[in-house]
Amino acid sequence: DCPTAAALGRRVIEALKGGSIVLVGDPGRPGRAAFEAAVGEVLGAPVMPSCRGAARQAVQGKEGYREVFVDVFEFPAKNIACGAVSPKVPCVALRPSSVGQMSVVESTCFA
User: pTM to 2 decimals?
Assistant: First the structure.
């Protein structure tokens, strides 16, 4: 059971009801099943990733970056995710050094 993942699923549904397109990336975290169940229950269908992509995070003022590969879920499925994020075209985040770790594509909802 993962309450955070289930809560993210509820936020995805809320965003969809508001007319947003939502992309969620997951590197295989333990809460994925709870997320899929929360969204799938409301949509009435199994939830599956649209494609696989890369997330790259750099820290301002430092060299290098951290990159992870993620499964990207797209709601509603409009084939935007696969064109926007892929293993060869990563989603890139640059954070100030004063900000702690953050997760952009890895497990965050975009609208």
Answer: 0.74
Q: How is the beta sheet containing 91-95 ordered, strand by strand?
A: 91-95, 51-59, 66-75, 22-26, 109-110
CA–CA dist 85, 97 (Å, integer): 25
The DSSP symbol for 79 reads: S
Read off the pLDDT of residues 28-81 as tens digits, 9 standing for 90 and up. Answer: 888 899 999 999 999 999 999 998 988 887 777 778 787 888 898 999 888 888
CB crowding 74-107: b at 16 or more within 10 Å, else e: bbeeeeebbeebeeeebbebeeeeeeeeeebbbb
- In angstroms, the CA 22 to CA 109 distance is 6
C-alpha 33, offset from chain centre: 14
Sign of the alpha-carbon torsion through 29, 7, 38, 107: negative
Spatial distance between the Cα atoms of 96 and 87, rounded to a whole number of angstroms: 25
Give residue 11's Cα distance to chain centre. 12
